[in-house]
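A quick aside before the break. I want you to see a complete sequence-to-structure record at least once, exactly as it would be stored in a machine-readable document. Don't worry about memorizing anything.
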Amino acid sequence: MKLRLTAAALSLLVAAVPALASQHTEHKPDAAPAAGGMSEADMKAMAAAGTPGPEHEALAKFAGDWTFTNKFWMAPGAPPMESTGTMHGEATWGGRYVVEDWKGSMMGQPFEGRGVNTYNNTAKRYENTWMDNGSTGIWFSTGTCDAAGVCTYTGDGWDPISGQKMAMRSVLSWVDANTFKMEMYGPGPDGKEYRSMEIVAKKK
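That is the input. The structure line, written in tokens, reads:
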């Protein structure tokens, strides 16, 4: 999935083929075909989909090296389990994605996780994937950010205890220019949402 065709991602081309096929009859007969039989408008749309913008610049703030403190609540009202760790963020592929590698501990065991973040120009939304050494699955979430820079993501993944998909919500905000906070919310024993995790990260 990390191969690219020149400046345009291969995945964009693959995704565009069915849409182009279905819309082919709508093109004007006199539309000048471009490379590969696509019109100039098609090529411009693909270029726009793969061009980093201000949203990607905002994500680039997570690049660098960070230390973090983590609080994890097993249930509403339970005392939090606290731990510390590090995060290294790197902007890749011309700033289109930011890859975050987290290292710390969870419930007394070494913990490693990786998040990949981007802004999807076509979908007009932020997207995130997460995987870690405590599971064999991938969590996927999407989000939006307000004018103050507070971003809210929603998504789901498989809960190993129930064997069912579980919805999650996270809120990301900046405490100051070099400190961000991420709060995660999920269903408690009664099914009601509660804050299950809080991470505060500071840039080194």
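Two observations worth writing down. The longest helix spans residues 10-23. DSSP finds three helices and twelve strands in the chain. We'll return to this after the break.
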